Each structure stands twice: as C-alpha cells, then as structure tokens.
C-alpha cells in the first residue's frame, strides 16, 4: 500500500556541472543491498566506526561520504518511508562541499539536508539547519529529525518562546533546527551576557540554510539589532504627522518611490518652520527634520495592510514583503515605526537605543562551513560568490519539468486587470482544475476574495491577518485538490508541497479529527492527560498518546501510524470503541490513498495546477518561486502573470515604453498586451532593481566590514573576561597603561603652566594615587616618575584587594569582572551611536572628492581606539575609587 505512494524509481542522468558526483552516487547505490540486509540495531552500530573514520580523514573523504549518505538513505526509508532519489544524493554532496544546491520546488530539499547534517554532526561540534519561519523549524525537527534520532544523534529546536535554559540545552544537541532571526539574536544576546553560564550557543561550525536566497539576500538589506528603550518625544511625532498631512506632494515635498526617500522643498521648509516657530529645522540642538521626513514617508510610502497591519492591541505589526508573514517583535528603526504609529493614531512606543547589532552577511560568515539550498539562486549567484564565497550549482530535477509558463498579459488599469483575473479563475474553476493565486499585499488578496464571492467561487485565503489564521500548512497542502481555489499573499518559504489531487496525509489527519470527536470523553485532550486506571479506555491510553503525537502535532507519517496499529492487538480488545478506532484507521488510510490517486489522475488530465500571479515582484526569484508551485516532480501545470500599467514595477521601471507600445498598436482599453517583447522589457526592469538592491546590500556589507573587525575584537575580549578565573593582571596592565596615557597626554598638551601639577592632578583623579615627589625641592622628570607611579599603583591595588577580601572572599575578583563588563558594554553602545551618526554624515565627503568608505574606515578606527582608551580609564577609576559599605543589622 505504501509502495504505491512513496515509490521512486531512479535513473541518474547528470549534466556536466554535476557529473563529477556520478561515481559517488553509483557507489552509494551499490551499498544499498548490503544495508537492507541489516537489522535496525546492526545499522545503528555502523555510526560509531564511521565517526572515528570521519575525525581521522575528514568529511571530504569520498569513502566517508559514501558510507554516511548510504546510511542516511537507508535510515530515512525505514523511519519516514521515503527513499532519497539519486539527484537528492547529488544535492547532499553539493551541500557537504559548502556550496548552494539549487533544487526546484517539490524536489525534497528537506530530506536532502539530512545527508550533510548527519555527516558533519558526527564531529560533535553541532550543526545548524536554518529555516525561514518557526513552523518549518518545528516541523523539520519533529518530522525528519527522527532520522537523526534513529541514528543516535540528538536533535534540538529553538523557538521564540523558549527561555535561556531551554535554548542552551537545545544548542548543545548534534543537529539544531532554528530560524535565522533566533540564531542572530541569540548570538547578540550571548555577547551581552554577564556570566559564562548565560551563554547559550556553541561556536559556529556547519550550517545548512533552507531558502538561502530569502535569508542571505532578501533579509540581508537590514542588520539585526538588539536595542534598549529610550524615551520617545511623543509630541514631536504628533506635530510632525499633522504637518505632513497638511503638506502636499510635489509642492511642499518630493517622494522617491524607487529609493524609498522623501525630501522637503523650500516652500515646505518655510511652512514647517513657521508652524513650529523654529528658525532652523536642521538645528543640531533641536532637530525637527528627521521627524518630518519620517512622517512624510509614513504617509506616502508605508500603507496599512500592505507594509503593516494593526493587531487587536492596536500595535503596528510589520508584514514581511517577501513571505507575507507578520514579523512580531520587529520594528523599523530611526523613528520610522513611531511615525507610523502617530499616523495610525495608536500609542507611540519608546524609541530604541542600539545595544548590539550585526548584519546577516557577517553573522553567517562566522561559520567554518556554510551551505544552502533553494529553488531560485541562479539569478543572484554573483552576489553569493562575491559576498559569501558560495558557488551555486543547479541540481537536475528527478523528472522533466512539464509546466507551461504563458506570456504575461498587461491591462491599462487595475480595474480591468482584477476583472480579468476573476474571469480566468471562473473559467478554470469550471473545468475543475486547482488554482493558486499569488498576491503581493493583504489588501489585494481581500479584493480578489470579494470578486470571487460575486462569481460564487469558493476559496481559501492565506494572508498575514490573524483572523485568517487557518492552518497555513493545511491550506497549501490541499491547494492541488480538484476544484480548489487558493489565494495566498506571497508564497516564498511556505515549505509545504502542493500535490495534485490533494495531500493524502493531511486528508487522513482531517478524517481522524472528525472521528476523535465521537469518542465518549467530553474533551479529547483532557482524556489524553488522564492517567487514571479507572477509565474504561485506560489500558489503551499509551496507544492513543502515540496516535496523538504522530498526527496532532504535525508529525505526519502514515508508516509510523500503521506501525502503531500493527503493534496493538486490537482484534482481542474487549473495548469496542478502541477496536472500532483501529479498524477505522486502517480503512481511512486505504480509502484515502486510493481516492487521492484517482483525484491526482483527474487533475493531471485537466492540466494540473494553474498559478496566477497578480503583479510582478521586484525580484525575479519571488516570481519564480510562485510559478514553481506548479509542475512539481514532473506534474503538468501552467502559470500566467496579470499586470496593469499602474502596477508599481511597471510604473516606475518602464511604464512609458509600454504605454507608447499600447498606443502605437491602437488597442482598446479592454484589450491586453501579450508579447515576448513585453516580458523582456519587464525582465530588464527587474534586473535593474535587483542590481540596485545588490549595490545597497554590498554597501551595507562594506561599511559593516570595518565595524565587524571591531565587533569581533570586543566580543573576543568580552569572552576572555567571562572565561578568565582572575582579572588581576589584566587590571594592573590597565592601570599601567592609564598612567602612560596620562604621561603622554601631559607631555603633548599645550598647557603653559606647571605641567607636573597637571600630571599629578590627572593621576590623582583617575587612579587615586597621592604621591609626594618633592616638587618644591627640585625638578623631577615625568619619565622618572612613571616607574615610581607604576610601583605605587601595584602596591595601592594590593592594599585595595586586601581590604575587600577581608569583607568577603572573592569580592575583588567579582568587582573586576563586573566593572570591566559594564564599561565594555557601555562604551560599545556609545560607539555604535557615534558610528551611526558617522554613517549618516560621511556621504557628504564625496563632494570634497574623497571616498566616503575610505574616510569612514579611518574615522571609525580612530573612534574605536578612543573607545578602548576610555574603557581602560573608566575601569581603573571605578575600581580605585569604589567603596564598599557593610549593611548594619
């Protein structure tokens, strides 16, 4: 029965780029028969010698790869009922080399990741599998993670709601599933930790990034930031919003949609200065210009139900433009979020002061070995190679692609476009073919839903609004069923295959849920928690719990369910309900498998899944991801994009050429253009946008590179502080260098009076040293005093140490660590603020014929050196001037 569903006959035919892997795959296939003869215990016993061989010879050794991949393939078949295709083995080999495997949607990237993660996890250093959202991380850890557990590895999962203790336990596992956000924020939090025990992560070793283009390209435009609250000038935001609403576009200000910027014109500046009763909006003491520009951006560029939504608590929640998901806890920086809150007239939350930050580029370059997989990486292969030193290798599909991509059609306005989309949905729905419609915003998904209601077409809606929060996986899984119409806001990283005829495993799950409701327990979940022996179903409680774990926590697997059923002697059960349940489960599986197969044949005969795109995205990859939902594993399918002249990409990047083309052809308003010339024009526009964003990401990376050297230095120093048993020698060195700094500063000063007095005063203020050098008797050179001062400092420090140790053993060591960490963190936060201000102003250097990046590197280095000196001085001052008071009882 399961062979029908999971069969995958193989014949390997590789293009030149991947032909070098053919011999390795053939060796893996030749080992398969021998491994099949082994029992589970014998199979698992092969792991230990493989680990020893790996540590001796390395993961690049061909024999080690063959043994490991063969082992994982056999384990996956036994645990999940799925056998790796030969092309999936090739994908695993590419990932193990630290490269990007481009594999089309539906080619099974999730189980491909099992191969290199198992092999590299044998080193015992920890392997990370990065996914784009928490649902996929949890699903993969619970479902495919069982293969790793079967082979004796530990599997960890990081979720946003976990406390530090749970996180630390999970990061210690051999294979850890998590999102890029959690990885980055945990890294930053670890480098703000106050004790060694607060650190949750291990050093980064090997990483596989699922949807690597989404993580390292789309999300790499903005850095990850951990911030602390600072008081927001609420009044300024409110006044700026009122002024922005009163000002008129192109008269008082200009808006650059391409670059997402706004500029006040002279007339607008005058009106604002009069309204605010200020003489200069750009005043350094009381600047108004950033608040006004943010309010104009909020008004013109950031739209409700497109860029953000309002939740039930009236909070502004950002919507990810690439995935269509809400980004809880994320806020726009530099006061933009507060400006949007003022625009929507909701409570304005505090501004944020940066405590720590890192770009995704520099975060993932921390790994010893990095790899990734996606269906759409070739369009960005240049960026992957330049920034991350990752080559992109296209893996052939298991079966030939049969999807037909029709040319785009373009209408004169939005109204005509949406009417045409609704008509196309009606025509295809009448045939019975499944339809998937991808929209770019929540607003547009709801517009189409309203139109379909007028046509009487049933649909399922998937977008970021909480009220539409039907299970994402359920909606996508059944998008290939007969007469299914699915509207989804963006399809990037949805993670669930669309199977023609519907997903049989989700269908079975739905049937089981219906049957569960018939059980005599008032509440099924309560029944599962009931450990009482008096329950007439009590002896079957473990059986029900296994069913619950397998089916009601998204750990969906037919083979496991059948194994559970076969292990229970249901025929001899005296309880009719349990017997009925078991019999029904067998029946449901058999019936649903046959039904799904017949449905799949019907849908394929009708032409497969039809994908409709309602707008071109700025990135070709996002469009390709939408199209890629159709034509999975050699299935039939088709796709078409519907556009209008007032779509953003057409309007901003080539609209005039297309308008003149329509006028020259003399077409009616209702007649769309459909031509290969149009498609080429739009492809060219998308390439320009991609090039623009690549330059922006490259600039972000180049500027952060200079800061990254400093960040690594500070974080390395911080780690040494946490791990050191004693910091005494460290502080003594700080004191000696402080004295030297004072000496140099005094000698180089322009002070015209008695330099020795200045010198002694500085020494006394910072170190607390009171030393009489007999100034009245004779002149003493400062160089001679340096040696005496250093000796005196050591004596004074020893006395301070003795005094504190008499109060409490180890107190001096704790004060050293505490003061040092406090001052490092405080100085770094101040440094980040100065760096932000430097970035904002440095571009003006170009007008003086100086390279802004070179100037930035010089000045940021000078700021960093100054910061290090300040840390030394502050730590010495605090330690020498500190007083400990005993509480009287």
Descriptive account of the structure:
With 889 residues, the protein is α/β, with parallel strands linked by helices. It folds into five domains: 16-222 and 362-394, Rossmann fold (3-Layer(aba) Sandwich); 232-349, Pre-protein croslinking domain of SecA, CATH 3.90.1440.10; 402-500 and 608-682, 3-Layer(aba) Sandwich (Rossmann fold), CATH 3.40.50; 504-603, no CATH class; 724-881, Helical scaffold and wing domains of SecA (Orthogonal Bundle), CATH 1.10.3060.10. Helix content is 54%, strand content 10%. It is built from 36 helices and 20 strands. A seven-stranded parallel β-sheet has the order 3-4-2-5-12-1-13, sandwiched between helices. Strands 14, 15, 16, 17, 18, 19 and 20 form a seven-stranded parallel β-sheet that branches. Helix 16 crosses helix 17, helix 23 (504-516) packs antiparallel against helix 27 and helix 32 (728-747) crosses helix 36. The longest helix is centred in the last third of the chain and has 48 residues, at 676-723. Mean pLDDT is 80; it is low at 1-11, 520-525, 527-546, 548-577 and 773-779.
How do the helices and strands line up, and which of them pair or pack?
Layout: H1 2-6, H2 22-36, H3 40-44, H4 47-57, H5 62-80, H6 86-96, E1 100-102, H7 109-112, H8 114-121, E2 127-131, H9 134-142, H10 145-150, E3 155-157, H11 164-171, E4 175-179, H12 180-190, E5 206-210, H13 212-218, E6 224-230, H14 234-246, E7 253-256, E8 261-264, H15 266-276, H16 289-300, E9 308-310, E10 316-318, H17 336-343, E11 351-358, H18 360-364, E12 369-374, H19 381-388, E13 392-394, E14 402-405, E15 409-411, H20 414-431, E16 435-439, H21 442-455, E17 460-462, H22 472-477, E18 485-489, H23 504-516, H24 524-529, H25 541-551, H26 558-567, H27 576-606, E19 609-613, H28 620-627, E20 636-644, H29 648-652, H30 655-665, H31 676-723, H32 728-747, H33 755-767, H34 782-807, H35 811-842, H36 852-881
Parallel strand pairs: 1-12, 1-13, 2-4, 2-5, 3-4, 5-12, 14-20, 15-20, 16-18, 16-19, 17-18, 19-20
Antiparallel strand pairs: 6-11, 7-8, 9-10
Helix pairs in contact: 2-5, 4-5, 5-8, 6-8, 14-16, 14-17, 16-17, 20-21, 23-27, 25-26, 31-35, 31-36, 32-33, 32-34, 32-36, 35-36
């Amino acid at each position: 029965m399961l062979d029908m569903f999971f069969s995958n006959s193989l014949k390997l035919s590789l293009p030149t780029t991947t032909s070098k892997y053919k011999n390795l795959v053939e060796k893996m296939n030749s080992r398969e028969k021998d491994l099949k003869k082994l029992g589970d215990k014998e199979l698992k016993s092969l792991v230990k010698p493989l680990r020893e061989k790996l540590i001796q010879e390395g993961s690049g050794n061909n024999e080690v790869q063959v043994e490991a991949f063969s082992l994982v393939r056999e384990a996956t078949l036994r645990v999940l009922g799925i056998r790796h295709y030969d092309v999936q083995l090739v994908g695993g080999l590419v990932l193990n080399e630290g490269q990007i495997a481009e594999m089309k949607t539906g080619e099974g990237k999730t189980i491909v990741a099992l191969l290199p993660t198992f092999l590299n996890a044998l080193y015992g250093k920890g392997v990370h599998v990065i996914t784009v959202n928490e649902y996929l991380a949890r699903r993969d850890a619970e479902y495919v993670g069982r293969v790793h557990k079967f082979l004796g590895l530990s599997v960890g999962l990081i979720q946003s709601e976990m406390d530090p203790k749970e996180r630390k336990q999970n990061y210690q596992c051999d294979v850890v599933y998590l999102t890029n956000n959690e990885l980055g924020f945990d890294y930053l939090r670890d480098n703000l930790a106050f004790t060694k025990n607060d650190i949750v992560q291990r050093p980064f070793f090997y990483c596989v990034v699922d949807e690597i283009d989404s993580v390292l390209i789309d999300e790499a435009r903005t850095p990850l930031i951990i911030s602390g609250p600072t008081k927001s000038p609420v009044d300024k935001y409110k006044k700026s919003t009122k002024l922005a609403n009163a000002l008129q576009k192109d008269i008082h200000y200009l808006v650059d949609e391409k670059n997402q910027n706004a500029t006040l014109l002279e007339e607008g500046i005058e009106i604002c200065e009069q309204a605010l009763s200020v003489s200069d909006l750009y005043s350094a003491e009381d600047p108004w210009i950033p608040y006004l520009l943010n309010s104009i951006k909020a008004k013109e560029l950031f739209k409700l139900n497109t860029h953000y939504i309002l939740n039930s608590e009236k909070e502004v929640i950002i919507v990810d433009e690439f995935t269509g998901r809400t980004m809880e806890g994320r806020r726009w920086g530099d006061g933009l979020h507060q400006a949007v809150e003022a625009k929507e007239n909701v409570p304005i939350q505090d501004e944020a002061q940066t405590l720590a930050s890192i770009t995704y580029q520099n975060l993932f370059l921390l790994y010893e070995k990095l790899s990734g997989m996606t269906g759409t990486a070739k369009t960005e292969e240049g960026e992957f190679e330049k920034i991350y030193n990752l080559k992109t290798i296209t893996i052939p599909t298991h079966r030939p692609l049969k999807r037909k991509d029709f040319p785009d059609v373009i209408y004169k306005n939005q109204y005509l476009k949406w009417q045409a989309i609704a008509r196309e949905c009606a025509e295809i729905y009448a045939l019975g073919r499944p339809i998937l419609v991808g929209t770019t915003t929540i607003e547009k998904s709801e517009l189409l839903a309203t139109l379909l209601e007028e046509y009487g077409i049933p649909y399922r809606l998937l977008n970021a609004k909480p009220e539409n929060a039907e299970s994402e996986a359920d909606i996508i899984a059944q998008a290939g069923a007969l007469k299914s119409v699915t509207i989804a806001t963006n399809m990037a990283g949805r993670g669930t295959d669309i199977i023609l005829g519907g997903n049989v495993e989700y269908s079975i799950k739905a049937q089981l849920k219906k049957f569960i409701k018939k059980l005599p327990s008032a509440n099924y979940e309560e029944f599962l928690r009931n450990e009482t022996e008096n329950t007439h179903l009590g002896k079957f409680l473990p059986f029900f719990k296994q069913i619950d774990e397998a089916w009601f926590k998204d750990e969906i697997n037919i083979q496991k369910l059948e194994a559970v059923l076969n292990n229970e002697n249901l025929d001899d059960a005296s309880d009719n309900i349990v017997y009925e349940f078991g019999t029904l489960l067998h029946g449901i599986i058999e019936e649903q498998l046959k039904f799904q197969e017949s449905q799949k044949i019907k849908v394929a005969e009708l032409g497969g899944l039809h994908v409709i795109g309602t707008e071109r995205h700025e990135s070709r990859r996002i469009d390709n991801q939408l199209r890629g939902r159709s034509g999975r594993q050699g299935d039939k399918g088709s796709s078409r994009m519907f556009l209008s002249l007032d779509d953003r990409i057409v309007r901003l990047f080539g609209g005039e050429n297309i308008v003149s083309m329509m006028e020259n052809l003399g077409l009616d308003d209702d007649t769309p253009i459909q031509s290969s010339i149009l498609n080429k024009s739009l492809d060219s526009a998308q390439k320009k946008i991609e090039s623009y964003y690549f330059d922006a990401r490259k600039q972000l990376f180049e500027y952060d590179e200079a800061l990254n050297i400093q960040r690594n230095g500070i974080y390395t120093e911080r780690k040494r502080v946490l791990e050191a048993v004693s910091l005494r020698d460290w502080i003594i060195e700080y004191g000696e260098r402080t004295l030297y700094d004072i000496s140099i500063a005094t000698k180089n000063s322009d002070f015209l009076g008695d330099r020795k007095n200045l010198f002694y005063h500085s020494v006394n203020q910072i170190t607390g040293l009171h030393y009489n050098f007999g100034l009245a008797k004779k002149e003493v050179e400062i160089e001679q005093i340096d040696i005496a001062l250093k000796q005196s400092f050591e004596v004074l420090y020893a006395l301070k140490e003795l005094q504190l140790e008499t109060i409490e053993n180890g107190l001096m060591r704790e004060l050293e660590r505490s003061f040092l960490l406090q001052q490092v963190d405080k100085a770094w936060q101040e440094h980040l603020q100065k760096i932000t201000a430097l970035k904002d102003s440095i571009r003006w250097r170009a007008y003086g014929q100086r390279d802004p990046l070179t100037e930035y590197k010089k000045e940021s280095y000078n700021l960093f050196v100054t910061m290090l000196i300040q840390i030394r001085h502050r730590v010495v001052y605090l330690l020498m001037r500190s007083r400990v008071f005993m509480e009287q009882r």
